[in-house]
Amino acid sequence: MKEKLGDNCLMKAQPHIDSRVNALRTKYFALAEMRGPKCSGFGWNDVNKSITCDDDVWDNWVKSHPTATGLRNKSFPYYDELDYMYGKDRATGRGAENPADAIENITLNEQEH
């Protein structure tokens, strides 16, 4: 590409690529949160790959989650691929144990061996 554009082209692709990847990642996490088990009132249109909800639900959500602005009814055809890439990127609490559970598990493990 450098041969095609010559040395006069000073544009660097990496910052632009990084910016786009970060924007997609931010949008994915906003969508994933709305689709998650802790949120109610949101639906998912699997044909269009978009979030659906009533106006009042959306208005209240966007007030406290500004990164979601503009995502309602917007198609994300690559949501499944982004979910594959980023889906395990945040802690969910699954598999976590409190101190009492940890002690019980250690005791059970010691009794088995």
TrEMBL record:
Domain Myb/SANT-like: 11-60
Pfam name, any one: Myb_DNA-bind_3
InterPro entries: Myb/SANT-like_dom (IPR024752)
Chain positions covered by the region annotation Disordered: 93-113
Protein name: Myb/SANT-like domain-containing protein
